[in-house]
Amino acid sequence: MSDAALNVPPSRIPDLDLVPAVDEVGANERAARFCKRSIKKESKVEALKLALSMIDLTTLEGADTPGKVRQLCQKAIHLHSTLEDLPHVAAICVYPTMVGVAKQALGSHDINIASVATAFPSGMAPRELKLEDTRMAVAAGANEIDMVISRGAFLRGDYGLVFDEIAAIKEAAGEAHLKVILETGELGTLDRVRRASVLAMHAGADFIKTSTGKIQPAATMPVTLVMLQAIRDYFYATNRKVGMKPAGGISKAKQAIQYLVMLHETLGNDWMTRELFRFGASSLANDVLMQLQKQKTGAYQSQDYFSKD
């Protein structure tokens, strides 16, 4: 089991005034350079398969039904009938009320069940309701919890409230991995993204995650780079590995490979695994499968051959 899976107790609230300022121009320029890398042939196939294995296949709509969740689980189990040696996705991500449906549909397959919780996506609920939301999801079979921070509290400088809430959700989640969603599109600056990342990790997060996918901008390369750098510095200081999950707006295989290049160059080989990196996505899997089919046959398969979920 990786360090990210350990139920690590939170440390004390960090002094966020000591968090280094982010050079926004430098971060944007460095992130842009990752988009210019070119990966070909066998290396590209391996990168595509790795990206596929890191996907949290997601449906988080008010119109979700048990039938839709079962269909998504079947897609996770049977990604493509003609492509060989495909990994399965890392997890199915659903609302707490759909966890039981997903658990039954996945059966004994080695695919995790992630559930959003804590009044996703707004986080605007009393703490006790957030804790109950978390406990309900875990009791139903979720082994990963994706929580949202209270952005209003963070933006007004009430860091103690945010820290205590993450620590309480961590305890309520028990052995389930805790992914802490910062909703970076609402934080406004890369300095705030960096500070929120540090706060979440010290409070016990197993993963830090960019976005709910409900706010724009969602995941971006500069934001993800800043979060990866925060993870790197936290690891140097504590020797604890924290995972990363960019989510929202990553729908193309080319983008996913660019994120993997950035991950490798920032955190190295240890993080090139589904245990420490995820993509939160609903449509990325289809484009990755199309690219793998192109590498195999030399021609793109029609989108009609893939489910729309």
Keywords summarizing the entry:
11% strand, 309 residues, alpha/beta, TIM Barrel
Gist of the model:
With 309 residues, this protein is an alpha/beta fold. The protein has eleven helices and eight strands.
What does this structure look like?
α8 links the parallel β5 and β6. The longest helix has 18 residues. The chain has 11 helices and 8 strands. It starts with 23 loop residues before the first helix and ends in a 12-residue tail after the last helix. The radius of gyration is 19 Å and the shape is globular. The N terminus is likely disordered. The protein has a single domain, classed as Alpha-Beta Barrel (TIM Barrel), CATH 3.20.20.70. With 309 residues, the chain is α/β, with parallel strands linked by helices. Helices cover 45% and strands 11% of the residues. α2 packs antiparallel against α11, α8 runs parallel beside α9 and α9 packs parallel to α10. The protein has an 8-stranded parallel beta sheet with strand order 7-6-5-4-3-2-1-8.
